[in-house]
Structures are given as structure tokens and as C-alpha cells.
Design goal:
The protein is mainly alpha-helical. It has one domain (about 15-135). It is built from five helices and no strands. The protein is elongated.
Length: about 140
């Protein structure tokens, strides 16, 4: 399989395996819900620096996944694991605190989206695809 570069050929998205498409979709959806959740609940307490940190993490996470390289998959899984731990903390804090059911619901939705993204990135089809994309073409002997 020839390498796919979505930045140069976005139409080739349809050629990706279903698990890779689902990983990309759930990651983007997770970040959208994340910003809805964060800004909805903490808008009075957020500083500009905190907003930029969250936006930077989202952009880097999505950008590297679209590189379709195995190192990007591993980096994205690492970031997703940190986000999942953060949302587990939110779930425990909100379930025992005075936050309403909407906050707990948003936490559960985000846990589901980021968890699904991690699951799809860990499946065999996705792992094989990302490893194939990372293989370097053989160097030509004539220079």
C-alpha cells in the first residue's frame, strides 16, 4: 500500500480503514465536546493561558494523528490517556459534589468519545495501517 498524505490529498480519507476513520472522528468529536464542557462550566475561572493550553493540546493531538504515522498514533494515545485520566478525576469529583447531571453527562460523553478513540487506535487494523504508513521506501542505489 502506498503512503497516504491527507494534508496533500484529503480526498484519500475514504481509502483509510474504518477503524482509522472512526478514531479520527471520535478524537475530533471528543475535543469539540471537551471545549463545550470546559467553557460551559469553567468560563469564569479560565485564564487566557489555560484556554491556549487546551487549544494547543487539541490542535497537536489532531494534527499528529492526521500525519498517519505510527509515532503519531503512539503520541496521540499517550495524550488521550492523560485526557481520560483527567475526565475520570472530573467524574469522581462531580459525582460526589454539587455539580448537576448535565456536568456528569458531559463527562461521561467525553469519557466515551476519548475512550472510543483510544480503542480504535489500538485495534489491529489501525496498528497495522499506521505501521505500513511509517515504512520508509527503499533508497535507490543510483545517486
Amino acid at each position: 500500500m502506498e503512503p497516504i498524505n491527507l494534508f496533500q490529498e484529503p480526498r484519500r480519507f475514504t481509502e483509510l480503514p474504518k477503524t482509522v476513520k472512526m478514531a479520527i472522528f471520535t478524537l475530533f468529536a471528543g475535543w469539540l465536546v471537551h471545549f463545550t464542557f470546559i467553557f460551559g462550566l469553567f468560563q469564569d475561572q479560565l485564564t487566557e493561558n489555560m484556554i491556549l493550553q487546551h487549544a494547543g493540546l487539541a490542535i497537536i493531538s489532531c494534527f499528529v494523528l492526521l500525519k498517519l504515522k505510527n509515532w503519531a498514533r503512539i503520541l496521540c494515545l499517550t495524550g488521550t490517556a492523560m485526557v481520560l485520566l483527567n475526565y475520570l478525576f472530573y467524574l469522581i469529583a462531580f459525582a460526589t459534589g454539587s455539580q448537576g447531571p448535565l456536568a456528569v453527562g458531559l463527562v461521561l460523553v467525553n469519557l466515551s468519545l476519548f475512550g472510543a478513540s483510544a480503542y480504535f487506535l489500538l485495534t489491529g487494523d489501525s496498528a497495522d495501517f499506521f505501521k505500513q504508513q511509517s515504512v520508509k521506501p527503499p533508497q535507490s542505489a543510483a545517486r
